Amino acid sequence: MTLNQASKYSIKPEHILLVHDELDKTLGKLAMKQGGSAWGHNGVRSCVECLQTDVMPRLRVGIGRPSGKTSVHRHVLGCFSQEEQKILIGVLEQSVDILLSQLTDKEDVQSPLLPPGGRPALQTGKQRVCSIFPPKDTTGQT
């Protein structure tokens, strides 16, 4: 979602819930974070640059660090093993519960943890085209 798209639909960046993987959390661990730096996460960095702020609340989903000689790139973009997929079923259920509570908790919406405006994104000097695509429908239903 670009800043223009968010503005067009009157969506404030602090009302956008960002869900992303987290190498520094073990597989299956979840944590909410209220805004802050991207800390080297390219996807988060892209969202911060597009929205020109870092105030978005985030659900961090632990994927753990790679083992052995597996590169971080291969680990992040690779497939989960059968054993890991079993863990992820519970993670998905927990994630939905957390996100729904974030969306329905009136107190959090009225009193954000960050001061209004948050920190502006660092300017990199180049314009980026950013968008968020809806997930693909894998059920075959429309």
Task: Walk me through the structure.
With 142 residues, this protein is α+β, with helices and mostly antiparallel strands. The chain has a 3-stranded mixed sheet, with helices on one face. The chain is globular. Helices cover 35% and strands 11% of the residues. About 24% of the residues have low confidence.
Concise structural overview:
The protein is α+β, with helices and mostly antiparallel strands and about 140 residues long. The chain has helices at about 5-10, 40-50, 70-75, 80-105, 105-110; strands spanning about 20, 30-35, 55-60.
Number of helices: 5
Mass-distribution shape: globular
**Low-pLDDT regions:** 106-139
Radius of gyration: 16 Å
Helical content (DSSP H or I, runs of 4+): 25-40%
Sheet/helix structural class: alpha+beta
Question: What is the number of E strands?
Answer: 3
Q: How would you sum up the major sheet?
A: 3 strands, mixed
Order of helices and strands: HEEHEHHH
% residues in beta strands: 5-15%
